[in-house]
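Continuing the series of single-chain predictions for the mutant panel. This is the parent chain; the variants come on the following pages.
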Amino acid sequence: MTDGPGYDHTAPRYTLRLYVTGSTPRSTRAIENMRRICATHLDGRYDLEVIDIYQNPVAAVDQQIIAAPTLVKLLPLPLRRVVGDLSDTEKVLAGLEIQPHPLPPSA
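Parent structure:
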């Protein structure tokens, strides 16, 4: 996807970490929502790491995660966080300072 038609080589690449708590319905929903948002709005310009804080509690302490699911945008700076199941796409995009993908023109 990174070399497809319309790919913008000057657009920033995003480094994202999603902290979840096991395979709960809320965690699963957050993962699905974030993958959909990335596929739709970041067009291959992202690295998404999912961290289960039950299996890696040190990672949560290092990033001062106090609620899960929590999405952390590490790059591009500034660092941003969004808490919740990420079902509100507009809130996630605004929180991460990502410009929404333009809608195709109507026929």
